[in-house]
Amino acid sequence: MPRAEKTTGAVASAAISSASLAWRIVRARCSSKLLRSLIRPADPLHCPSTHNAGVDLVSQVLLFGLSWITTTARWTETSVASPMKEKAVTDNPDTTGFRALFHAPGPLDSQYLSSSDPAIASIVGQSGTDYVILDAEHSVYSLATLRGCIDAVAQTPARCVVRIADDSPTLIKQILDLGVDGIQVPNVSTADQAERIVKAAKYPPEGIRGIGGGRASGYGPRMNQSVSTANSSVAIIVMIESAEGIRNAADIAAVPGIDGLSVGPHDLALDLGIPMNPQHPKLLDAFHTLVAAGRASEKKVGVVCGLEDVPQWLAEGAQLFTVFFTTQVLNAAAKDTSSKMRAAFHARIDA
Description:
Elements (H helix, E strand, L loop, with lengths): L2 H28 L2 H6 L13 H27 L18 H5 L6 E6 L4 H8 L5 E5 L7 H12 L4 E5 L5 H9 L4 E4 L5 H11 L21 H11 L1 E6 L2 H5 L1 H5 L6 E4 L1 H8 L8 H16 L3 E5 L5 H7 L3 E5 H26 L1
Helix pairs in contact: 1-3, 5-6, 7-8
């Protein structure tokens, strides 16, 4: 049976089972003296507005059943990846899903998002980008707003990564429990730090990550599947943003479980004591050191840059590219729109 048909059948079966369960619960409740006293005998399915307790009880039970249907359907449906999400194939059984993209040929593009609006996340996810990075390091996200944006991206062809604030094992666990496809950890300077990050992000025996019943496990039903696939499919990207990190680049890149390395050129330039110029010789030398380290360990190396700088960094050996959607693309689009409108106004006035 084709995979899509199996998915449809599973969703339908889950819906029927859940609806049946919800109806049995409602029927049992309706037979109680309390509920029968709240619902008119002449019309057992009618709940007058004056009988709020009866309405609330029936509504809550039905909503529980419908919520379970929706959750089951969503997680069954999203377990079938779109063609874009399936485009990377490797022969390594330890590298699957999103993580496989980082070990397949070719560059990858992504966009930073600092807005907590799920609608914006959905728009960026539908843009054709390989993955969306929710910037929880510099932006005002909570776990709740992150979950909303992650849900939104999950309905698009793009994958979802969260740039976390630091390398705290607790924070890594909380973010991964939200069901992201990968994490990006800023300011990694040593191999020991990289090893601790991998350990915090992996389930035993490779790491120390604990099992939770959050979004990653479908809030429970997919727990076994989540635990069995997370180590091989969740990507770990580290950012090198200091002179110390560049000196230790080869050792960091060689850490098993690290899938990509990215330069934050502005922070690196500040640490190197040089202007924030993408063509500064010291910055380029540092980037070449990182590229060499990545190639030696077969890891992709990337950069955060403006759209106009992509050709330069591609020539320098970058394979992971990230632009700031909210502060670059959205600003540019807003300015362009305003400029064109004013030009139209002036053209009309001059005429």
